[in-house]
Design brief:
Strand content of chain B: 15-25%
Radius of gyration of chain A: 58 Å
Oligomer: heterodimer
CATH architecture of the largest domain in chain B: 2-Layer Sandwich
Number of strands of chain B: 12
CATH class of one domain in chain A: Alpha Beta
Distance between the termini of chain B: 121 Å
Number of helices of chain A: 8
Structural class of chain B: alpha+beta
Shape of chain B: rod-shaped
CATH topology of the largest domain in chain B: Tetrahydropterin Synthase, Chain A
Distance between the termini of chain A: 200 Å
Number of domains of chain B: 3
Largest interface: A-B, 115 and 117 residues
CATH topology of one domain in chain A: Tetrahydropterin Synthase, Chain A
Number of helices of chain B: 12
CATH class of the largest domain in chain B: Alpha Beta
Helix content of chain B: 55-70%
Shape of chain A: rod-shaped
Helix content of chain A: 55-70%
Largest sheet of chain B: 4 strands, antiparallel
Order of helices and strands of chain B: HHEEEEEEEHEHEEHHHHEHHEHH
CATH architecture of one domain in chain A: 2-Layer Sandwich
Strand content of chain A: 15-25%
Structural class of chain A: alpha+beta
């Protein structure tokens, strides 16, 4: 009796395990009967299917990432750029997804094709500089919108397409570096020239200041000297003017004392004024 | 899934233990009544069932959050502690650490202990394909971005996006490159650094929310914003040039500091000298005038005598040093009035020079 119960239980278990299955929070499923889709299971939970005739296909429900490899594109101004893109997507309609692309690898390939084509088209319409600056967001939006539209037919909902890297090819990088170097050299030269400029300005200013100071001082000193000379002259004139003849006399005597002296030979006549008493006590000639 | 455990949904741990105890008691009664022997065999299914039920116990550690799934559907989140769920295949659980601050490195990798042990020199290794990026003015800059984040929503983190932490890494790169692409290299490297950082952080959080990663960015920091190796010298030279500029200016200012005060000193000296000259001139003139006036007063008292006296005194001073000849014009036959020019020419010239100098000074 017990053995029978156990046997029945085991059989039931085997059958149930064949029929019952769970769909996780992270997945969705589809029941296929002889290759024909029968049911789409979106919500997580416990489900049943017919054993053997029906098959379960599971799909991801989470947001998936497609990190595409870098490809080379051409811009409007004929520059080559390396662009890669990341798209986030999820399987919105397992039925469509299964019909059109079937699995993850093929879905990725199809998405890649779609996005690359659209990106190529967009990059070709913009100049390189716009591409790296303001147009980047716009392009991503346009590509996202168009990809969303196109991917609907695969049962895929595209959340967004983002440009991750937007770089120059290796050989162009060298010229960018050269340009950057030239740019920096220019700036460095400018700084040094500016320094020179201001230094010269300051030095010249200092020199000018010095010259002005000295000239002003010269002016003052000359004025003072002149004043001294003038005052002295006035004093002399005032004093000596009281007896011009006497001044002439005394001043000449002073001058003689200086002019004449050792080495001067004087020939005197005995009848000169100085020697007039030499020959006669009366001074008579 | 929303809300904590709902009563009656499944038995709590305590109720279950009571049930287990009850079963044990009954089993004991059963065996003691019927005696031992093959009866032990009857207990085996019971033990199996008990063990099966016990697999529903699990521990949620501190800082962790448990998520209970019933047939794959998230029905509950549990707080730290000893928890119970129904055993497999009905329920299952996942545990997520929500307190731990996780870190992502973009553009560089911190060397692991193993790498350091192998003799890697620095603690940080640059990853050029991540670190080098184009700026808005078509330059290339090297940036290391460091992101700290934690799990905010365990259910989203587990089930809404595939590999959320990988998403974070690529999205951080997207956000960073987009922010750097909007700005110039100089701005990014200097005053715009914080702004680029903020732009990156907010863009990153926005995208992470859009992708339902359940992650929250606590910090995004630009660790390194440098020119690439190839052009680093040129950038350093700009810094040197800046210093050169300041040095030149400082030197010139030093020159000014040196020259101007010296000039002022010189000027003051000139003025003082002129003042001295002026005073000296006036005082001397006054002296001369006084002397003259004194003598003049006496002269006026006795004109002839004073005049003669002065004259003779002067002669006395002059004459002794001179060579003198007294010639009588009447006796001209005996002496040839020859002027020996040679001697005069050979005679001391300094005297002459001094005379002319003195004459110039004496005569105003």
């Amino acid at each position: 009796m017990t053995k029978l119960v156990i046997g029945v239980l085991l059989a039931a278990l085997v059958i149930v395990s064949q029929m019952a299955f769970t769909i996780g929070e992270w997945e969705q499923g589809m029941i296929v009967q002889f290759g024909n889709p029968r049911r789409v299971l979106r919500e997580p939970g416990l489900y049943f299917k017919l054993p053997i005739v029906q098959q379960l296909i599971r799909f991801e429900k989470r947001v998936l990432t497609n990190d595409a490899r870098t490809a080379e594109y051409l811009t409007l101004d004929k520059k080559r750029v390396l662009v890669d893109h990341v798209s986030r997507w999820r399987i919105a309609d397992p039925l469509e997804f299964y019909r059109s692309v079937r699995d993850f690898q093929r879905a990725t390939a199809r998405l890649d094709d779609l996005i690359s084509a659209r990106l190529r088209q967009e990059t070709a319409q913009h100049n390189f500089l716009d591409l790296i600056r303001e147009k980047r967001e716009n392009i991503m939006e346009v590509v996202t919108r168009d990809t969303q539209e196109a991917a609907k037919s695969f049962g895929i909902e595209v959340l967004d397409v983002r440009i991750k890297r937007l770089d120059l090819p290796q050989e162009v990088q060298a010229s960018v570096f050269a340009r950057m170097r030239a740019e920096r050299e220019r700036i460095a030269k400018r700084y040094r020239a500016e320094g020179e400029e201001r230094a010269r300005e300051i030095r010249a200013g200092a020199d000018r200041e010095r010259e002005v100071i000295l000239a002003t001082a010269y002016e003052t000193s000359q004025k003072l000297s002149g004043e001294g000379d003038a005052q002295a002259a006035a004093i002399y004139a005032q004093a000596f003017g009281q007896d011009e003849e006497f001044y002439a006399f005394t001043r000449r005597l002073q001058a003689y004392e200086k002019i004449l002296g050792r080495g001067t030979t004087l020939v005197l006549r005995p009848d000169s004024e100085l020697l007039r008493y030499l020959q006669s006590p009366t001074g008579q000639q | 899934m929303n809300g904590r455990r709902t009563p009656g949904n499944f038995p709590s741990g305590d109720e279950l233990f009571e049930a287990v105890e009850d079963l044990k008691r009954r089993a004991r009664e059963f065996t003691s009544r019927r005696g031992s022997g093959g009866k032990i065999l009857r207990l085996i299914p019971l033990i199996v069932i008990l063990l099966w039920l016990a697999t529903g116990l699990y521990v949620v550690g501190p800082g962790e959050r448990g998520v209970v799934l019933r047939f794959g559907k998230a029905i509950d989140q549990t707080e730290p502690g000893l928890r119970y769920r129904l055993p497999w295949p009905i329920d299952s659980h996942r545990i997520v650490d929500i307190a731990q601050v996780r870190r992502a490195e973009v553009g560089f990798r911190t060397a692991t202990a193993m790498e350091l042990g192998r003799g890697a020199n620095a603690g940080v290794r640059t990853v050029p394909q991540e670190a080098l990026m184009l700026t808005g003015d078509e330059n290339i800059v090297e940036i290391h971005l460091f992101v700290q984040y934690r799990v905010q929503d365990p259910v989203k983190f587990l089930f809404a996006a595939y590999d959320p932490e990988a998403i974070l890494h690529t999205t951080a790169e997207v956000a960073l490159r987009s922010a750097v692409g909007r700005n110039t290299i100089d701005y990014t490297m200097t005053e715009g650094r914080v702004e680029v950082q903020e732009q990156t952080k907010s863009a990153l959080q926005m995208l992470l929310d859009a992708y339902q990663t359940g992650l929250f960015v606590t910090e995004a920091r630009l660790l390194v914003v440098d020119p690439p190796n190839e052009v680093r010298d040129a950038f350093h030279d700009v810094v040197r040039a800046l210093e050169d500029r300041d040095r030149l200016v400082k030197e010139a200012e030093g020159y000014r500091e040196d020259v101007v005060p010296k000039a002022r000193g010189e000027a003051a000296q000139m003025v003082q000298q002129a003042e001295a000259y002026k005073a000296q001139r006036v005082i001397r003139a006054q002296g001369d005038a006084q002397r003259f006036l004194q003598v003049l007063a006496e002269y006026h008292k006795a004109r002839a005598v004073t005049r003669d006296r002065l004259y003779l005194e002067s002669m006395e001073r002059i004459m002794p040093q001179m060579e003198k000849y007294v010639l009588d014009p009447g006796q001209r036959d005996g002496v040839v009035p020859l002027l020996p020019l040679k001697e005069i020419v050979a005679a001391p010239t300094p005297d002459k020079a001094r005379l002319s100098q003195d004459a110039g000074r004496e005569n105003p």
